[in-house]
Design brief:
By secondary structure, this protein is an alpha/beta fold. The protein is built from 40 helices and 25 strands. A six-stranded antiparallel β-sheet has the order 12-14-13-16-17-15, with helices on both faces. It has a five-stranded antiparallel β-sheet with strand order 5-6-10-8-9. A four-stranded mixed β-sheet has the order 1-2-4-3, sandwiched between helices. Helix 2 (about 25-35) packs across helix 21, helix 8 packs across helix 11 and helix 26 packs across helix 27 (about 665-675). The mean pLDDT is about 95. The chain binds flavin-adenine dinucleotide and iron/sulfur cluster (2 copies). One iron/sulfur cluster (SF4) binds next to helix 21, helix 23 and helix 24.
């Protein structure tokens, strides 16, 4: 409940910003307040802003009321710069406009685009953005530029500071300035002459101080994100250029970036990598200086502890396990425009590095699958350490840089300090080419002693990095709250004074992200530490990194996987301690809808999660914990599937008859009235609901006996749901499947007792574990018999059911999804005439999880001349959830229609229920891909 100035702010904003984008309740403020850092502050008010006008209004009002504001892009920051206990403004999913110049050399971007998305759009032009943080697929360009984030290849030459060519910002007083627009600059010169003059004078002063300007030049020879980008004052004189570059790395403390223009860099297609092993970390560091003089784009150092943390994972080279305790690796990459150049690069690197004797023969591989395996070692480091940590502890990644000539000595010193402070398990790795080392360790913040130990480590690190080596305390992750107490130590009094002046020029009232970058509290890095209580074994390893957020269908509708986990952790901790009972009850109540009802349990979050957490599994477990444990009714239904499917067929046919008699409009009105009266308990009807299917006769045709056999298991959905009105005069999917199998030379064989069989997903997805397992076991034994104990392949016509079967059936049966079976066995036996119309395909979640989404697109391209592959994650129909929570389906497919042009009339997929939602939200008739293959093979 808002009070005081926050209440006033809310009242001032509510007329202009839609209420459903303002959050002040315990659930959403905690959810949105969570980021990847180990700090926790819960905002009073969260605003999901939609455009620049809203930002300007928020800043004007906050300025008038003296309320501080923090901006948020993807919330993957690690140093505590994206959290606040005041107002949090989120500029993410609604800020995704992109303009690419014709040759791809320049991109103008809104802040909510992820780096990965931008690069995917630039890739066809052979370009990419310079900054390359490891978090690029989830981090957004607003956060990437505001942190001056970088990664393995970009170094100091291709980061946002070096590649920015224009910026549009909203200042603390709400004024908008676009540095790539002359009229905007003129207006700004008239409205803010003092600001421009003060900046120009500051630059003159800094340039006049030889010591300071030399220090600035020296410090930016290596990566540095500690404090403000002071090089803006030495590199430029024009105040607009200075503003443009000061904004980079300013972590939301100087203004809001509403658009940024970047020069892109070439994306070389030819790459080769080598994993070089050295006797110890010192030798490896010395090799880096040699490699710096050769044509390499990335040199990553990985110490023995790091290699050990990944050596048992799938696909890792076997020799890792046999390395001795001191050995250390360098992972080296070289790129080129052509093959010859690539191999000459590799030769030069090998010749260089051989001078200092790496262990074994140095070899490069240009084979994609091989070098990707090598890079998996590096990418898996942070997550695997996170996954190995003790429940309840936090994983911390620090990020320092040393001058390259002293890297070997500094690394040995760093090891000593970690060991001295009891962090013997710490792993050291990093972008050695830039002198940038990360060290990762697990930390318990549950006791004062442990927090003090961390404090001592930080002091020792600061002393080492600054006083001994004059390095950077934050090389790429941003200062945040974590290094704010050490900025003055690193830069010295004079430079720190200049930084304070910069802050007061841009933000005289200090409302923009106060406490971040500059903070007078010497122990702020040890305050507001995030609790990581144990809550459920499925999700306890979650580091709250946020990588899963872009893949979640309910993101922006309700919660993301990370937010579900954070809220669940809080509910569990509160209920265990008995603290704040009202808040606990409010969180639990809100979680029912936001966490449970609107989770599609599709598990797409697990694909992108570095520690493979499937938050859907947590939700299924919660569902299970809330139901009657005896599962009496679900078990009765499960044991009488023949009656259930018959009733479903009859009801669907009856509803379909009503539809024919009453027409679509009247049916829609009646259905929505019934749903309202029933308090949303009655599922929503829609015009794409199918009629009941015809019962399948499972007798075999004696004429086909000489053919190859395939066990065909039509899912219970396809045994209940027939064709819908838009399918015109088509036959139902099970008949189509049989027809195609026969065309392909197969004899379909049905399992015994087909009417009663089900994969169990219909039960398990609702939390009915017993009923789900019972059905799954029954199906397994029927399929064993029908397939002659694994002799014949088994085909199921719905990919979600096939996925469930693959998860549960472990007796070695050969299970196939329709696209896989058709591609492997039927297609080679058919003559295909691709249809000439443009069609679209939608890979459902289970296809993505099975890694078959590419195969669906390929199959469609064989069968149709023009194919549009939908670019969305889950459709949100989630089995039958789309009938009860149509808003999830609506949200999941909100961008789909815009991807399809008006000539598209037919869409194809592999899940009957998803197809209903797809048709509803696009107006295009969706069916199984089986229909397209049949049509093209006529
Ligand atoms: C596992 C993991 C690996 C990582 N690897 C790297 C790495 O290799 N290199 C690296 O540099 N970082 C890395 N990071 C840190 C982080 O992902 C990056 O710094 C990233 O660029 C942050 O982007 P974001 O969209 O999450 O920004 P957020 O965290 O949302 O915000 C970052 C900062 O920018 C400000 N901000 C956000 N939007 C705006 C805006 N529109 N205008 C003004 N200010 C704004 C925020 O207030 C905040 O201070 C990693 C993080 C994780 C969890
Ligand atoms: S579930 Fe995985 S991806 Fe999501 S926040 Fe947790 S660790 Fe990161
Ligand atoms: S299962 Fe799907 S909807 Fe649920 S949290 Fe994961 S991605 Fe989101």
């Amino acid at each position: 409940m808002l009070t005081g100035k926050y209440k006033s702010l809310y009242n001032r904003l509510i007329g202009s910003i839609s209420q459903n984008r303002l959050f002040d309740d315990p659930l959403y403020t905690l959810a949105y307040g969570t980021d990847a850092s180990f700090y926790r502050l819960v905002p009073e008010l969260v605003i999901r802003a939609k455009d620049e006008a809203e930002i300007s209004l928020i800043l004007r009002e906050c300025s008038a009321l003296n309320i501080s504001v923090t901006f948020r892009a993807a919330g993957t920051s690690l140093s505590g710069q994206a959290v606040t206990d005041s107002v949090l403004v989120i500029a993410g999913s609604m800020w995704k406009k992109i303009r690419i110049s014709e040759d791809g050399g320049i991109v103008r971007l809104q802040p909510g685009l992820t780096g990965g998305r931008i690069n995917a759009l630039l890739s066809p032009l052979g370009r990419k953005i310079g900054p390359d943080p490891a978090s690029i697929d989830s981090a957004m360009i607003g956060g990437i530029t505001a942190n001056n984030a970088s990664g393995m290849c970009c170094g100091t030459a291709q980061n946002s500071y070096q590649t920015v060519s224009g910026i549009r910002i909203v200042l603390a007083d709400g004024t908008v300035l676009d540095t790539s627009d002359n009229s905007s600059k003129q207006d700004f010169s008239s409205s803010h002459p003092e600001l421009l003059e003060e900046l120009s004078n500051l630059a003159i002063r800094v340039k006049a101080s030889r010591d300071l300007s030399e220090r600035i030049a020296r410090k930016y020879k290596i990566k540095n994100t500690t404090g403000y980008s002071l090089n803006a004052l030495t590199d430029f004189s024009d105040p607009f250029d200075i503003i443009e570059h000061l904004m980079i790395g300013s972590e939301g403390t100087l203004g809001f970036i509403s658009e940024i223009t970047l020069k892109t860099v070439p994306e070389y297609k030819h790459r080769a990598s080598s994993l070089m092993i050295f006797p110890d970390i010192e030798m490896a560091c010395r090799a880096v200086s040699i490699l710096k003089t050769t044509p390499v784009t990335a040199v990553e150092i990985i110490d023995r502890a790091g290699l050990r943390s990944v050596e048992n994972e799938e696909g890792m080279p076997g020799f890792l396990k046999n390395l001795n305790p001191d050995q250390c690796a360098l992972l080296v990459e070289t790129v080129a425009a052509g093959k010859d150049e690539l191999s000459s690069n590799a030769d030069l690197v090998i010749r260089g590095v051989n001078k200092i004797y790496p262990e074994g023969e140095v070899k490069f591989t240009g084979i994609r699958s091989e070098y990707e395996k090598l890079w998996k070692i590096r990418k898996g480091l942070f997550p695997s350490i996170g996954a190995m940590r003790k429940t309840g502890t936090t994983v911390i990644i620090e990020d320092v840089a040393f001058p390259l000539p002293q890297l070997a000595e500094a690394t040995l010193d760093l090891q000593k300090i970690l060991s001295k402070n009891g962090y013997k398990e710490a792993v050291i790795f990093g972008h050695a080419l830039e002198g940038n080392l990360h060290f990762v360790f697990t930390q318990d913040f549950n006791s004062r002693e442990e927090t003090e130990r961390y404090g001592r480590l930080m002091r020792d690190i600061a002393d080492l990095v600054v006083n001994k080596y004059d390095g950077s305390l934050k090389a790429e992750h941003g200062t945040g709250r974590n290094m704010a107490p050490f900025v003055e130590l690193e830069w010295g009094k004079e430079a720190y004074g200049i930084m304070k002046e910069i802050k007061s020029i841009f933000d005289p009232k200090g409302i923009l992200n106060p406490g971040v970058i500059l903070n007078s509290e010497t122990d702020i890095h040890l305050k507001n530490l995030k609790p990581m209580p144990a809550s459920n074994a499925i999700t306890d390893k979650c580091t709250e990194c946020g990588f899963c957020e872009p893949s979640c269908v309910s993101a922006d509708l309700t919660l993301t996987p990370r937010q579900r986990i954070a809220i669940h952790r809080e509910i569990t901790a509160l209920s265990e301690t008995g603290k704040e009972p009202h808040r606990a009850a409010s969180l639990a109540k809100g979680f029912r809808y936001a966490g449970d009802y609107t989770c599609a349990t599709d598990g797409l979050c697990a694909i992108v999660c570095p520690v493979k957490i499937d938050t859907g599994k947590l939700i299924k477990e919660i569902r299970n914990s809330l139901i009657n444990k005896s599962e009496t009714i679900p078990l009765i239904l499960a044991r009488n599937m023949n009656i259930v499917t018959s009733l479903a067929r009859i009801s669907l046919s009856a509803v379909s008859l009503f539809h024919k008699i009453l027409g679509t409009r009247l049916m829609t009105s009646i259905s929505s009235a019934l749903r309202t009266i029933s308090l949303q308990k009655i599922p929503m009807w829609n015009p794409y609901m199918p009629a009941g299917s015809k019962r399948i006769r499972s007798s075999t045709n004696p004429d086909l006996r000489s053919r190859l056999k395939v066990v065909y298991f039509p899912s219970c959905i396809n045994r209940s749901m027939g064709v819908s009105v838009d399918h015109k005069n088509e036959i139902q999917v099970s008949e189509k499947m049989v027809r195609l199998l026969i065309k392909g030379g197969y004899e379909p064989v049905y399992p015994d007792n087909l009417d009663n069989l089900c994969c169990g997903m219909a039960f398990s997805s609702k939390g009915y574990v017993k009923a789900g397992l019972e059905k799954s076991r029954e199906l397994e034994s029927a399929l064993q018999k029908a397939s002659n104990y694994g002799e014949y392949p088994i085909l199921c016509d719905m990919s979600p059911c096939l996925f469930t079967m693959k998860e549960n059936i472990k007796s070695g049966l050969k299970l196939y999804e329709p696209v896989e079976f058709i591609t492997q066995f039927i297609l080679p036996r058919l003559k295909i005439n691709p249809v000439s119309e443009t069609v679209t395909v939608f890979p459902v979640c289970s296809m993505k999880k099975l890694g078959l989404d590419g195969m669906l697109a390929d199959l469609a391209r064989i069968c149709a001349k023009n194919v549009i592959v939908a670019d969305t994650n889950c459709c949100g129909f989630a089995g039958d959830r789309g009938f009860s929570f149509p808003e999830l389906n609506n949200h999941g497919l909100r961008d789909l229609k815009a991807q399809l042009n008006s000539s598209v009339k037919n869409g194809y997929s592999t899940s009957r229920t998803c197809e209903i939602g797809l048709s509803l939200h696009t107006g295009i008739s969706y069916k199984s891909i089986i229909y397209l293959v049949d049509q093209a093979s006529r």
